[in-house]
Amino acid sequence: MSDFLFEELKDLERKIESDKIPVDLRDRAKKMLDRLNRMAKLGGYSSEFETISRYVETITSIPWGKSTEDNLDLKHAKEILDKHHYGLEDVKERILEYLSIITLRKENGTNRPEDALLTEEYHAPILCLVGLQGIGKTTMAASIAKSLGREFIRISLGATGSILEIRGQSKALPDAEPGQIIKSLIRTKVMNPLILLDEVDKASGERGLRSDIMAALLEILDPEQNTTFRDHYIDFPINLSGVLFICSANNTGTFSTALSDRLEIIRMPAYTDEQKEVIAKNYLFDKVLSSSGLTNNDVEIEDEVWPLLIRPLGFDTGIRSLRRNIETMVRKVAKERVEGKIEKTVINSTNVKKYLPDFIGN
Predict the structure, then answer these.
(1) pTM for the complete prediction?
(2) What domains appear along the chain, each with residue ranges and CATH number?
(3) Looking at residues 58-77, what average pLDDT do you find?
């Protein structure tokens, strides 16, 4: 047994001692390391080393006891929502009401996990944003996280092929790893992030598997169950009550009845052409310019062009294609600027086809 391996074991032991992991879990990990140490002293190599070292690395990476403080200022929340989303007043109003309930529960001391177990009247609503693709469901969830001051992470459930992707695999299996919920806690480095469960309606095309996934989601979302969520890899109850979950879907047709009962559906309407024009001018254009390294002094899009960009290739309920059109034009302007051809570009109805080759118009 090499000295390097002994050093690795010592490092793992230090991590177990220094991290604020639950006592029972720490004791379990210590026993695993003690067994490896005994085998190492006897001069034998254990195939368990890689398995146990990965396990210890994982449980010490979970941000036990770490969380962010919520900013529950409704005025601040409204400013964030208005800054990043045009229109959708009914949706914003419902989100502000939701934050108000969280505020009152915290002020009255009724937002603690133990209260959820003591009363059947506690049913914290889980928001589910429902709307067609490109309508802004993900950015709306990100805005809620920003308004609260929480870390944000998205888990895509689209075409999830196995329940193990959510709940993890047993550490005894080769190349086992925790599920997406635990990975989200590790990546955000806090126990109370806002997790967007995206594309819930597309979890699986197989009815039996989809039922299993819906059941797992019910456990994750239900405050009466998620205080003792057990990931197969960690194999230890983990309290998810501090996590703020938001779901999103294109429709609710594939939801189980039990899951639908736990969700509060917020339907996000499609944007009108007039709204898209305002969004393109006041929101998207500046974002695209900022990401491209250009400024308003480098490129100008005249008012007559904006209506032409909304439906160059047909109707789109969202704004993704609109953003792609703006990005296409800005990229071409950036190329001209680098080549030194022109100092400022003005895009109008006459030259729009030059900057948007796929444009279909008169």
Answers:
(1) 0.81
(2) 3-61 (no CATH), 74-267 (3.40.50.300), 273-355 (1.10.8.60)
(3) 91
